[in-house]
């Protein structure tokens, strides 16, 4: 069986949980408490030198890291349902939207960055929250501007890679009080996605380590 090292509030872990569920793959979850520093344990660092989550360990013991790389792997080994469309132009658009979340918003808002802002640059807790809200708001505006009219999800009537990234990031947006008034389209996508069992089961609050 696949083993997913995950933290319940990690949006990157959330992405992989959704994909595993959509693909119908069985897996067991091993919690990694990022707040307690479990990611720095020597045994875990041996699996994931970046000291983050997720890590997906295959049945042969191979450890995969970085959520987008894991999602790409899963899409190749279990191609149905596809996370990326076959049309090259639409594929590029879906990847661009996903990367707004995964490469523009997430890296500047992750726990390591927030801790550094506070410990080395004197940011207060409130300033840290405003930092996260700023980058999420900017990214959501860019994401929403890319979307066509009509599909139930971002670019299709079925959820794709970008929708997985979006829904996970929206969890953080709600958690940190981002003003979602300008983002009605994104909230519609989220509402539609969370009706699906694959997304619902992957919600942070439904994880074994949720507190």
From TrEMBL:
GO biological process: glutathione metabolic process; L-phenylalanine catabolic process
GO cellular component, one term: cytoplasm
Protein's UniProt keywords contain Isomerase: yes
Superkingdom of origin organism: Bacteria
Molecular function terms from GO: glutathione transferase activity; maleylacetoacetate isomerase activity
Domain GST C-terminal: 87-211
InterPro entries from the UniProt entry: Glutathione-S-Trfase_C-like, Glutathione-S-Trfase_C_sf, Glutathione_S-Trfase, Glutathione_S-Trfase_N, GST_Zeta, GST_Zeta_C, GST_Zeta_N, Thioredoxin-like_sf
Descriptive protein name: Maleylacetoacetate isomerase
Organism, as annotated: Roseobacter denitrificans (strain ATCC 33942 / OCh 114)
